[in-house]
Amino acid sequence: MGNLLGIRTHQRDHGFGFELISEIMASDSKIISKCDAEGMSLSLDMSPDYRNSRLFGTACPEIIEILQSKDVTSNSHHYCVNTTDFERYGMAERF
User: Fold this and answer.
1) What is the pTM of this model?
2) For residue 80, is it within any domain?
3) Taking all residues of the chain, what is their mean pLDDT, rounded to a whole number?
4) In the chain, how many domains are there?
């Protein structure tokens, strides 16, 4: 474990992306779990209220349809935040 901004973090390359942001916001490095999502292109499984999000709220319907129906997202993850932990740590209200 390392210490970044006062939060104990796993010794790995965060890339300062979603994993690190999640650990900081949750104040707990256990929010991150090992997963195998290396070199995958996937469609998005959006929550029913995705239109309330800042990211997708104003996206045109054609873009949403593509994201939901075609394998167009690039994924290269060794660590993930699962949906249960995302909600348990109150992250859903923040993103």
Assistant:
1) 0.62
2) yes
3) 81
4) 1
